[in-house]
Amino acid sequence: MAGFRLRLMAAASVALCLNAGMARAEDGYDLWLRYRPVEAATLPAYRAHATTIVAAGTSPTITAAVSELKRGLSGLLAGDVTAGQLSDGAIVIGTPASSDIVKSLNLPLAKLGDEGFVIRTATVGGHAVTVIAGNTDKGVLYGAFRYLSLIETRKPVDALDIADAPKLKVRVLDHWDNLDGTVERGYAGRSIWDWWRLPDLKDPRYIDYARADASVGINGVVLNNVNAKPDSLTAPYIEKTRAIADTLRPYGIRVYLSARFSAPIEIGHLKTADPLDPEVRAWWKAKADEIYAAIPDFGGFLVKASSEGQPGPGDYHRTHADGANMMAEAVGPHGGIIMWRAFVYSEHDARDRAKQASYEFQPLDGQFAPNVLLQIKNGPIDFQPREPFHPLFGAMPKTNEMLEVQITKEYLGQATHLVYSTALYEETLKADTFAQGPGTTVAKVIEGGIGNHPLTGMAGVANTGSDRNWSGSDFNQADWYGFGRLAWNPDDSAPSPKTGRA
Question: Can you give the pTM of this predicted structure?
Answer without folding.
Answer: 0.93
